[in-house]
Structure formats: structure tokens, C-alpha cells
Design the sequence.
């Protein structure tokens, strides 16, 4: 379990630095091997930024727009 946590932390650090192409395969690996819920969410967000770009003033904090 500690290996999974370390991998997630690495992917999340890449995400925070806008290194989405580095984060994506790690999230995908965690999903493939363990159906990791947080990684599923983060991969969805990562894909959105890869497809649509990231605003210049982006901070890694997520703001929910729906309930």
C-alpha cells in the first residue's frame, strides 16, 4: 500500500506543477492495478487540462461547480 501512496503523491506533485503528461500515466497505472478512486478523479481533471489547456492564473485547488 505504501508504494501506491508514493506513486499517487508523485502523480499529484506533477499535477500541481502542471506536468500533466507526467501525471497521467501514473494515475492510469493506479487505476489499472487498483481502481483507485482518487486517481480516477485526478485523471479526469488531468485530461480536461490536457484537452483544454490550463489558465495562466491556475492554482491546483479544485472548485466544484456542481453539487
Sequence:
Amino acid at each position: 500500500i505504501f508504494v501506491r501512496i508514493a506513486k499517487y503523491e508523485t502523480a499529484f506533485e506533477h499535477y500541481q506543477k502542471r506536468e500533466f503528461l507526467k501525471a497521467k500515466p501514473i494515475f492510469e497505472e493506479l487505476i489499472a492495478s487498483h481502481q483507485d478512486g482518487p486517481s480516477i478523479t485526478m485523471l479526469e481533471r488531468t485530461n480536461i487540462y490536457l484537452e483544454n489547456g490550463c489558465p495562466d492564473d491556475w492554482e491546483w485547488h479544485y472548485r466544484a461547480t456542481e453539487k
In short: The chain has a mean pLDDT of 91. The two ends are 31 Å apart (CA to CA).
